[in-house]
Structure of TANGO6 N-terminal domain-containing protein:
Amino acid sequence: MADLHRDMEKLAVDRLGTSMRRLNEAIDSIRAVRMDPSVDIEAKILQVLPLVPNNSISEQLLTLVDALSEAIAEAEALESSRDPPVNKTKPRAPLCLLSLRDYTTVQAAVELILVWGAYPCVEAGILTPIPQRVVAKTFKIDRAKVQHVATLESNPSTPAHLDNILRGLLHVLQLSQFKPMLLPAYLADLLACLVYRIHCQPSPPPTAAAARLQQLMDVLPIRVFMGSLRGVLATPHASTLFVLSSIPFTLKLLFIH
C-alpha cells in the first residue's frame, strides 16, 4: 500500500512539473514576441502556443492553466493523506512546491486570460480600461502588445465563453497557493464579470455564474468581498443595465450579512 501511494505521489509530482513547465514556456514565448507593424502579432503568438490551432490565445492559455489547476489539486489531495515523516528532524518537501517564477507565470497567465478572454465578453466600460490596469512588475509583457492583441480579440464572445473563462480563473485562484495574494487582486474583475453575466446576459440561464458568485460569498470574509464590490460600484460604467442590476444585488447582500 505504501509503495502504491509513493507511486501515486511520483506521478502527481511529474504531472505538476509537466503542466507548470508548459505554462512557463507559453508565457515566456508570449513575452519573446516583439511588436512589429509588419507582423500579425496574434498569429505569431498562436504559432508559439502548440495546442488546438483553431482556439483563441485566451482559450489555449486557459487549457494550460486548467491542466495546472488539476495537477495542483491532485498533489494537494495526496499531500493531505500522507503519513507523518518517519524522521521528524528531516522535514520532507511538499508535493506541490512552486517557485517564485512559477507564481509569477500563473499571475501573468491570469492577467492575459482576463484581458484577452473576459474583456471581449462584456460591454466596454464594465471592466477597468486596459491601459489603466495595474499589473505586477514581474508581468514583463509590453502593454502595447497586450492592448494590440486585446483589440484584435474584441469581437463579442458568447455567454458560454465567459462562463468557461470564469470557471477556469476561479478554479486556479481559489487554490491554496494563489488564493491569499492573487484572488484579492482579481476579485473586483471577477465580481464585475459575474454580475454582468447574471443580470445582463440572461440567456442562456446564468446558473453556473450564480453558483460561483454564491460560493465566493460563502468562502470569503465579508470585509474582503464588500471591499471588492465597492470597487466595482465606484467605477464609472457605461452600461445603465449593469449599474441598475448591481443596486438590488448589493442591497440583498447587505441585508443577508
Residues 2-32 form the longest helix (31 residues). The mean pLDDT is 84.
